[in-house]
Amino acid sequence: MNSQLSTDLPVPTLQLRGFDIHAGLIPADGQAGWVDDIRAVVAAAPLVVPITPGGRAMSVRMTAAGRLGWVTDRAGYRYAARHPGGGDWPPIPARVLGLWHRVTGLQRAPNCCLINFYGAGARMGMHQDKDEGDFTFPVLSVSLGDDALFRIGGVDQPAPTQSLWLKSGDVVVMGGEARLAFHGIDRVRHGSSALLPKGGRINLTLRVVAD
Ligand code: SIN
Ligand code: FE2
Hints:
Elements: E1 14-16, E2 19-22, H1 31-44, E3 61-65, E4 69-73, E5 76-80, H2 94-104, E6 112-118, E7 124-127, E8 139-145, E9 148-152, E10 162-166, E11 171-174, E12 183-188, E13 201-207
Antiparallel strand pairs: 1-2, 2-11, 3-6, 4-5, 6-13, 7-12, 8-11, 8-13, 9-10, 9-12
The chain binds succinic acid and fe (ii) ion.
């Protein structure tokens, strides 16, 4: 079930406490195609303002592709089979799935691609990805657009932390000891990339959620 397709996996440019960072894995001239795919998903499943269980609006805008999407509202954090506005989530685009298989070497496909959009001032507090019900599989993160300051923490506690800038085209694999590590985005340098005409950052996280 965890079998690898290939041993010919891309080598991380940096390994930090179990996080595998592949800087620039998606070439600059290929990134517009990714944005087109994400725009098509967003057209079918619009970005929403996520509300924490405590009633606060998160600063990112969020949607998803795949069988399940991660949602949050006053009822709590969970994976849901339908967009908050109704309707199924669109399928995960083929090039996104292709990257997952190429980087993880896994046969198993992810069933959730969470899409976070960071406009001016958006950030994400330190958290663990722990709603998936199965931590055997890594979470793979793709950054597109503006530069973001990514903070990495410990497995059972946020501290001690280390930070690095993620740029457009960078891919991070959070597996093994990093699978349940705390992480967050302190800030985004709005307008630092020309990929999106009005600026902003897109982050995709691919997850295998237990059925
Ligand atoms: C997340 O943890 O869901 C997002 C991480 C990122 O935006 O790089
Ligand atoms: Fe996360």
